[in-house]
């Protein structure tokens, strides 16, 4: 969607087309969302906790943001505000130039349904359904059952051989890749994940992140992933560091550097 009031950034991105050739793709970088001086304060008996204390940033379409910070720095709170699971107590938040609803669970739920995908740390797959059925169920719930696309998504995350297995019959890393395919099945505009590789060893984390990056690039999905693992920075196009509810650095990095 091109908005004439916003600056449109363009860049060329190199895509691996097949094993022999690279392809150049023109990418429009429209503004997707903007938070300005966002606050999430909690009133507690011991005083006010400033979980978010004046956070300001914009995210452009197609960016892959990694949000890094120590425990208790406000990462989960920020993700919950981004997805409208939680309501900020101050500041503004707009998404595709519309104010994001707050303090209204019905409107917040429809905002999430229309725009947000989420990858959980503990996969949350239905154990009695096969890998393919887990994806078909999500498609069905969003009124869009499409077995062909479900199979393509599973292929995209490298699981074409496992589609008829049950979650208990595949590894943790493979389960997380099913969860990724499931989270992008409804083509979310913004994909979020909180410590989504937190349960996986380094090698498996890398495989999961590679699947995630190629899925996001192919589907043109913007993403924000929270982690405390510096090793995941290589998968991002941008790294935002947060501490005590404030952004302490915001850095663009060379994308595709993991390839
Ligand atoms: P992180 O995900 O970076 O570990 P959180 O966003 O969970 O951090 O928490 C940020 C701060 O907000 C912490 O100090 C935490 O204790 C506080 N906090 C989070 N939720 C609540 C709550 N419901 N009530 C009071 N304080 C909270
Ligand atoms: Mg957290």
Question: Would you identify the regions where 5 or more consecutive residues have pLDDT less than 50?
Answer: 1-9
CATH topology tier name of the domain at 63-89 and 104-252: Rossmann fold
Number of helices: 6
Which outline best applies?
globular
Architecture overview:
Helices cover 27% and strands 33% of the residues. With 259 residues, it is of the alpha/beta class. It has a domain at 63-89 and 104-252: P-loop containing nucleotide triphosphate hydrolases (Rossmann fold). It has a 6-stranded mixed β-sheet. Helix 3 (131-141) packs across helix 4 (147-156) and helix 3 (131-141) packs parallel to helix 5 (172-184). Residues 1-9 have low confidence and may be disordered. Magnesium ion is lined by residues 75-76, 194.
Describe what is shown at a glance.
The chain has six helices and twelve strands.
């Amino acid at each position: 969607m091109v908005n004439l009031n916003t600056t449109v950034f363009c860049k060329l991105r190199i895509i691996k087309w097949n094993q022999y050739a690279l392809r150049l793709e023109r990418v429009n970088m429209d503004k997707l969302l903007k938070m300005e001086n966002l606050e999430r304060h909690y009133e507690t008996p011991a005083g006010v906790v400033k979980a978010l204390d004046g956070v300001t940033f914009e995210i452009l379409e197609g960016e892959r943001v990694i949000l890094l910070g120590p425990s208790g720095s406000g990462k989960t709170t920020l993700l919950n505000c981004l997805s409208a699971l939680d309501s900020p107590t101050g500041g503004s938040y707009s998404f595709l130039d519309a104010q994001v609803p707050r303090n209204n669970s019905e409107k917040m739920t429809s905002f999430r349904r229309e725009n947000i995908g989420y990858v959980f740390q503990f996969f949350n797959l239905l154990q009695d359904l096969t890998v393919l059925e887990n994806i078909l169920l999500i498609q069905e719930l969003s009124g869009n059952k499409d077995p062909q696309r479900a199979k393509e998504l599973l292929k995209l995350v490298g699981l074409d051989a496992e589609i008829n297995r049950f979650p208990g019959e595949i590894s943790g890393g493979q389960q997380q890749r099913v969860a990724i395919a499931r989270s992008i099945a409804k083509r979310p505009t913004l994909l979020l994940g909180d410590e989504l590789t937190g349960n996986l060893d380094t090698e498996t984390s890398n495989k999961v992140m590679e699947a995630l990056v190629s899925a996001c690039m192919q589907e043109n999905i913007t993403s924000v992933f929270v982690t405390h693992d510096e090793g995941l920075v290589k998968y991002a196009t941008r790294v935002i560091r947060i501490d005590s509810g404030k952004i302490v650095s915001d850095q663009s990095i060379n994308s595709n550097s993991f390839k």
